[in-house]
Amino acid sequence: MKMSSNRERRFEEIRNLLDNLASELSRGIPIIVEGKNDTKALRKLGVAGDIICAKTSGKTLLDVLREIENHGKGEVILLMDFDNRGRELTKRIANDLEKMKIKPNLVFWKRLSGLVGRDVKDIEGLSTYIHTLKSRIGKNISL
Q1: pLDDT reported for residue 1
Q2: pTM of the full predicted structure?
């Protein structure tokens, strides 16, 4: 029974985190993900708003950063993958944003990584993981 309650607690924490993420995006704060599949996964999970891909074909990272600078929001949420490359990219983009006087928000990335980092290596896999977790709980819970 304890494993079930741990799964339920993790599911609730992830759901609350995604709700908070959606709320931030509804305020106009953009989010940066690595690729198009990450965007699709977040959309599947109900996250709407300005999602920018760091690895968009035809654009350099500098182009992406300039695009963010032009948003003029002063803050950007970073949500890269949880693997080594994702961690490195997060550090690099965070440093570049700080130089541009834009606040990199790493709260969501750190919390999600802590909740799913052992089981999920990328944002793309988050949707599948959550649906699997939901089915293992065995309840008809909406995300």
Answers
A1: 43
A2: 0.86
